Amino acid sequence: xxxxxxxxxxxxxxxxxxxxxxxxxxxxxxxxxxxxxxxxxxxxxxxxxxxxxxxxxxxxxxxxxxxxxxxxxxxxxxxxxxxxxxxxxxxxxxxxxxxxxxxxxxxxxxxxxxxxxxxxxxxxxxxxxxxxxxxxxxxxxxxxxxxxxxxxxxxxxxxxxxxxxxxxxxxxxxxxxxxxxxxxxxxxxxxxxxxxxxxxxxxxxxxxxxxxxxxxxxxxxxxxxxxxxxxxxxxxxxxxxxxxxxxxxxxxxxxxxxxxxxxxxxxxxxxxxxxxxxxxxxxxxxxxxxxxxxxxxxxxxxxxxxxxxxxxxxxxxxxxxxxxxxxxxxxxxxxxxxxxxxxxxxxxxxxxxxxxxxxxxxxxxxxxxxxxxxxxxxxxxxxxxxxxxxxxxxxxxxxxxxxxxxxxxxxxxxxxxxxxxxxxxxxxxxxxxxxxxxxxxxxxxxxxxxxxxxxxxxxxxxxxxxxxxxxxxxxxxxxxxxxxxxxxxxxxxxxxxxxxxxxxxxxxxxxxxxxxxxxxxxxxxxxxxxxxxxxxxxxxxxxxxxxxxxxxxxxxxxxxxxxxxxxxxxxxxxxx
Length: 576
Description:
Number of helices: 26
Number of domains: 2
Strand content: under 5%
Largest sheet: none
Helix content: over 70%
């Protein structure tokens, strides 16, 4: 009974130590992402240029945020949104695999130092800055604090693991599996154990720390620790696949590539596994490592594990990077197109959930707004076609506008919900302003969709009552609708621009042109009424089209003011 209680207590201590380690990793990751959120977004913008830059970007971002899962979920989100193609995402995912090896090097090298004393010092140094009014200082303090907590958790993890010789009954089943006589069975079994362990703790970094602890405590030999590392490479792909489950077909394909890439890597390394691990063990016993013994200490086997993890991932990238086009074709076959809906415009970013920090989540929302504006542009062109192009069946165009108006309502609702969730986190003042601006833009875009739909309903009324507008009135309506379409295109362009490059003069000029056109049309409208060119009922419908077109211009102006965080662009116009 006493032994049972002792075992339970020891298991709880291991779980508690693991919890401290994961919390430290989370705090460190979120701190650096919040501190450098905008810079990380700028890095991510450049990752579409070529495959090699993508690999470097994936490595750099993962090394910074200390989470390959965060990077790959981010990549899946961007593929889901159309910001990255499947092939472009592959480089980033491969780089993320290499970036995740940094964690093991940090643990393996710094673990030799008495990190608990250093960690407590780091916590003492950073803690006062947690209350800093300067947000970047606060987030950097969180990063340092998380770093300290991480190593305290690692020390606790090492101390809480009992000596296997003194307590052979504690998880002794693990040791039993190390001596299976059939070749490769124990290796494959520990690959599976590493996969399951990563699934359970939902962190490849935490799983790696556990593996390193088992190795240092001599529960498992070096060879089987390497096998567990391979399993953890497979297990870490599950997070991205979960994120992609509710994404579009492109996100699913990117997530499948991550899984396929890691599985293929594990398969080829298993073929040469024994000589490969034997070569690393020989390296550890070489004269080179003997010279480094004063630094790495007697547990230099952990350095060997870091070497295995890094060389495996680097070689896997070097071998498979030439086959990305073939792998792309394979994942397309694995996730085939089900229907035309997969390729059509629909919600793109929101479906994959919020990213690891608010600063990076806003990249999703920004791209969603760009897609929203694209939808409004389509509605503007549809409405223009309805009025001024000969259509075989205008009822189909009316139905399309109605469907798109329903979609604008859904976009606005889900964007609002999404941004509300982001705002619940610990966000900076700048992020809070960005969220308010995005909410305002979403509302204005949704209202533009409503206006175009209302214009469509009035068009149906004209048709139903067999009323035709005079040619000069039609030309005036054509002119103002073309101006609003020009303004929408300018708005779409500016949603993609950085603030300093947004042309205030062009924005105000097109708004002034719309207002001037409306004023001129009103003068002509009253003259037509006085001359009896059209009845009052027709005049009311005509002027409603004009007013609604002008209101679209007002909403476009509101969008630009939200982009630039200005309350009145006319004030800035005079300074241009």
